[in-house]
Structure formats: C-alpha cells, structure tokens
Amino acid sequence: MKHFIAAPDASEIDRLISSALYYKQSPRADKLLGEGKRIGMLFMNPSLRTRLSTQIAAQNLGMDAIVLNLDKDGWKMETGDGVVMNGSTVEHIKDAGPVLGSYFDIICVRSFPSLTDKEEDEKDTMIRSLIRHTGKPVISLESTTLHPLQSLADAISIREKSVPGRKPKVVLSWAPHIKPLPQCVPNSFAQWMNVLHRDVDFVITHPEGYELAPEYQGNATLVYDQQEALADADFVYVKNWSSYNDYGAMPAVQSDWQLRASSLAHAPAAHIMHCLPVRRNVELSDELLDSPRSIVPLQAANRVWAAQAVIASILKSL
Ligand SMILES: NCCC[C@H](NC(=O)CCC(=O)O)C(=O)O
Ligand SMILES: NC(=O)OP(=O)(O)O
C-alpha cells in the first residue's frame, strides 16, 4: 500500500482486517519491521484516539513516532499556487514538504474541513499537497472529507461482533449536536460499508436536509424514518453531521433523533457504535453508552490495530 487516504477495495480491506486481528493477538510480532524508520504525525486539529493509537501502533512496529501540533507549534502553512505571501501564512507547503520528506519515512496528517467553502474542502488540499511535495507515503488521520483509520477500526469491530453466517444489518443514524460537525466520519463509514456490500446490509437514516454527498451515500438504502430504519438492526452507528447540500448548515429538525434504549424497541440485538468524542445525552443516552450493547470502547481500542495494520502494510511496500 502506498497511501492510506480512502477505502481500498474489498480484498484489501479483508487483508487489513486479518492483519489487524493478528496484531491484536500479537502486538509485538513485527517489532523489527519499522526499526530505523520514523513516522511524523501532523495535527491541525485536536485528537485523543487518533494521535495516541497511531503512536502506539508505530511503536509496536519499532518505529519512532514524532507528533507536531501544526496548528499551535508550526508556521501557518500556505497551500495555494502562486500566492503572494504577504498575509498570515508564513511557510509554503512547497518548501515544508521536502523538509518533512527528508525527516520522515511515513507522514500522517489531520486537517478538518472549514465547513464554509465546499469546493475547497472537497479538494483535500493538505493531503494532496503532502503527497505531492513530500514524496513519502501519507496516511490520513481525518481529512476534510474522510476518516479511513476510523472506518477500518469500525469494520474490524463489526467483523468481531457479527454472528457467523448471518449478514448483519448496519444502520448509520444521524444524531443531534450543538454545533455543525464535518461529514468526514459518516462519508467514510458509508464509503467502507458500500465497498463491503457483500458482507453487510447498509442503511442510512437522517432527517431531510442532511443527505450525504451522493458519491459517499453510494448504493446505501436511505430511510428518512428513524424507527423504520432501526428495525432489526444488528449495528447502529450514531453520528452527527452538518448539511452537505446547504454546506455546513444545521437545518431544523422536527423530531427527537437522540438514540435512547427506547429507540431500539424493534432492534433488541443491536450493538451501538460511535467514533468518539460523544456528547452524552445529546447524541446518545447515558443508558445506552453505559450498557453492554455499546461497542464504543471496542471501536476505540481497535484503532491501535487498524493503524498497525495500515502502517505495517506501508512499511512492507517501502
Ligand atoms: N475524530 C472523530 C470526530 C471528530 C469531529 N468531532 C468533533 O469535532 C466534536 C466536537 C464537539 O463535540 O464539540 C467530527 O465529528 O468529525
Ligand atoms: N475518533 C477519533 O478520531 O477520535 P479523536 O478525534 O480523539 O482522534
């Protein structure tokens, strides 16, 4: 694997899941694979899980991991072509990229969308610029459009909790929030579930106005009625996102979309998922989050094995 910025094909996802489950059993099995190699992790936005799990994964493979909070500790980066840099940006990615490429064997970056400029956000400029100007493999730690390490951990968790021989019904259910959030997590989850369509029945439910970009919604079944969508679900992935069509807006919602135990009257076996961080009792009730139905801690724990499988695959291709 060269870069990890979106869902690979179904056979590659299968290989990554197998590799992740192998590392989960034997975390240090490949402790010499990354010896003498360095991974650089650049953050333009906050993180708890992605930062720590990716560092642990790299260390399990013998790599040195260095984190730079580019938003706080780096020079403000310019990515535009031909810009006269007489404003707030100090350093161009054309100059910083080769520097980073000389320091690191693998480069990772987190860069959230503006949610104000759709066209710009859809370009995933930071990821594309790093690929172009560092010459090194790039891993997305959540970009302006996708969050593939999260989706791999989600796919691993679904695989682990699925009943053998039964194709699970997986429902992505929109949840309320106090502020507009990116579409990256639902875009990415939908992209992965659509690739895995032979393994899962995938349904999306959200209020009108919260349609995802058609390229990510893909062939998912869209059901606007949350109760109808949740019936007989095996997995319910709860997540807020802002409007894509009215970009970054929060169109008014008439009914209560918070997921509670009572929402699952017709889905008695459903496992509850969320990528975290979660706003308790806004998106999801305490009752569900604190119940054995929640596999949220499993998803977060699987972030280590997801990252380890991806980094190992890239190291093997160097
Ligand atoms: N990396 C996982 C989710 C990150 C981000 N959540 C947030 O920004 C939550 C912020 C808050 O709750 O105030 C998102 O939804 O894409
Ligand atoms: N789920 C997730 O990506 O969490 P962080 O934002 O804490 O990394």
Automatic annotation (TrEMBL):
Residues 2-160 form the Aspartate/ornithine carbamoyltransferase carbamoyl-P binding domain. Gene3D superfamilies: Aspartate/ornithine carbamoyltransferase (3.40.50.1370). It is an enzyme of class 2 (transferase). It catalyses: N(2)-succinyl-L-ornithine + carbamoyl phosphate = N(2)-succinyl-L-citrulline + phosphate + H(+). The keyword Transferase applies. Signal peptide: none annotated. It comes from the Bacteria. InterPro entries: ArgF'-like, Asp/Orn_carbamoyltranf_P-bd, Asp/Orn_carbamoylTrfase, Asp/Orn_carbamoylTrfase_sf, Asp_carbamoyltransf_Asp/Orn-bd. N(2)-succinyl-L-ornithine binds at residues 142, 177, 239, 279. Keywords: Amino-acid biosynthesis, Arginine biosynthesis, Transferase. Residues 212-313 form the Aspartate/ornithine carbamoyltransferase Asp/Orn-binding domain. The keyword Transferase applies. SUPFAM superfamilies: Aspartate/ornithine carbamoyltransferase. Pfam families: OTCace, OTCace_N. Its EC number is 2.1.3.11. Catalyzes the transfer of the carbamoyl group from carbamoyl phosphate to the delta-amino group of N(2)-succinyl-L-ornithine to produce N(2)-succinyl-L-citrulline. Is essential for arginine biosynthesis. Belongs to the aspartate/ornithine carbamoyltransferase superfamily. SOTCase family. Homotrimer. HAMAP family: SOTCase. This is N-succinylornithine carbamoyltransferase. The gene is argF'.
